[in-house]
Design a protein that fits this description.
Blueprint lengths: L9 E7 L8 E8 L30 E3 L5 E3 L2 E5 L5 E7 L7 E7 L8 E3 L9 E3 L5 E2 L7 E3 L3 E2 L2 E9 L7 E11 L6 E6 L2 E2 L11 E4 L2 E8 L2 E2 L2 E5 L9 E6 L18 H5 L4 E7 L18 H8 L11 E8 L15 E6 L6 E4 H8 L8 E5 L1
Parallel strand pairs: 13-22, 13-23, 23-25, 24-26
Antiparallel strand pairs: 1-6, 2-5, 2-7, 3-6, 4-5, 7-11, 7-12, 8-9, 9-10, 14-15, 14-21, 15-20, 16-19, 17-18, 17-21, 18-20, 24-25
The chain binds calcium ion (3 copies).
The site of one calcium ion has 7 residues, from loops.
Amino acid sequence: MNESGLNYRLVDVRAKLSEAKSGVPISFRGVDVDDPTANSDNDPSGIIDNESLTADNRSSNWGFASTGSVTVENGVATVVTDADGFATVEFYVSTQPGDNWRVVATTNPSQLDGIYAIQDDGFYARVADANNHDQVVPGADAEMVDTQMLTAWRNLNVEVASMGPVTGNTLEGMITNVVPDPSNAANSMVTTNLKLDSSEVNRFNPGELTVGGATFKVLGNSAGAGVTLTVANNGNTAPGKGSFRLKDDDILQDGQDVPTPDTSKLADALKPVFITPRYFVDEGQIPFVANLDGNTVSGRPAVVNKYWQRKNKNSPDNWEVFVVGAFQNDTGSDLDPYSGRASYGTTVQGYGGSFIWTETINDKFQGNPNAVTPLMKRN
Ligand SMILES: [Ca+2]
Ligand SMILES: [Ca+2]
Ligand SMILES: [Ca+2]
């Protein structure tokens, strides 16, 4: 069932006699045919399709519906032909993408005892008859015929959202003292009235300090009250005292919108597993948070609960996901400073919601001289 209440699992299967004759019983059986995408060449260990088994669908929840004058017994549906020689039954497919079937129809139900799916069958996925010298069941002009292959596809509803404009990227304050760096005469130690969280040590390396119209490259910063910045002197000139602006190295600066994630390659990526994405783009924006930690009140689960509009539609029969263009994961994996772990994307287990860490991707791929090992994190 999908959200509109229509049952997309039902398929009409119709057999036609070679003459327009009514009242002739026709028997139908569904066959889980071979998975043609995996075989002994490209999947020798049988991880996707174990060819030593006689079936390979992931779900067994499929078969015929007992509707109208159709009788279903031991997986065989039987109905008589109408005045035009047609017999029609309803077959329901599983909801597992990639499951596939053919339906075999015959005027002689005892023939159905010998049919089986040929395994490791290349791209054919054929049905054969053990009682007839393992001959392939034809599509027409025989006492027993079969349909073309039908494969289950699933829709994936992808709700896409993003944070609003960046805030708090530039800090302002007063410089209270400047002394030469005792370990390097080309640098200065600048004491400020800033207060930073302990997780933000060296966050501003490599940022910019602007004071008195001059700009200085930031090499490091302390945390706590009275933050000290280590900066490179501008030529022979050290920064003076007074008001300053301090900007970190982020590509996106104050006032710039965090972009919506690029989903243009998702459809092609999901095609091999028989899933089609459908997009729902949120108009409203999620308030900007520089580091969206998973454990804080305003953290990832809270964003998922508050802003995933289609969350309640998510069910085993109607797949929904939520993809958020965000800024940075926790301060331990945001590449500020350029070291340690890098988190580029996070999916929240138990809540749903996938966060794309835009600024960390920018740090890594737009001119970061210090390559680090990427870490795709699931938590
Ligand atoms: Ca197989
Ligand atoms: Ca196969
Ligand atoms: Ca199959």
